[in-house]
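User: Hey, quick favor. My workstation is busy. Could you predict this chain's structure for me?
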Amino acid sequence: MTPAPKRSLLDELRAKSEAVRSQDAAAHRPIEKLRQQIDGCLWRTFRWLEEAVGHLDVIRPTVARAFRLPDVLTLDRPQFDGGFVSFRRRGLGVQEEIDQVELFYRLTGTEPFVLRVPPGAAAFIAERLRTSTMPYELDTEQDDRKVARFSVFRIQPSIAATIRFAADYAAHAVEVTLSNVDRFESVRLQFRPEAMDETALEDLVRFMLGESNGFLHRAPLALIRPSTSSGRTDAQ
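Assistant: No problem, here it is.
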């Protein structure tokens, strides 16, 4: 019997490397499937919200909420005053994935607020307004002797709200951060991608419009903190 030809060193190395590649590919297959699930979830979220916001831009509904800055002001039942949706990708080429989707929109009232406060209270009021995103101007009202009697705030009834959907591929989750949506605070929720379906997005829009708080009960609460966005100060 003729002995089988001896395998060369390259043949042995080739066989071993192919076996390792097969094992690695099998191990990465479930991870890749999870990443695709998150990416697909964010794409669907972007497309659905883009259409929904387009309709809201036309309708410009009244939002059934009151936004309160305690001891300062309350903006009651503002109007949806336009918005847009954007997304950001990461990665290169065929591996490119969505990193986050963001919805930006504005709520406005009908009349500016005018506050006349003692000069010593101006710093407190200014700090509260900075956390609200409401633009304002600050002037000083003097008496006949040029003594400052009041600090006068002229505040535009305009709130910048954002909703951010951020992919957490490591945790296999989508983090949703709502800023100035129902209060002057940021609220963060964590969703499994399969939970961010059309009914969840419908609940989100109802939540934006003040019709229901059901969206807040759909996922674990990760964070509540005061908004850190700054209102523009034209005169200080």
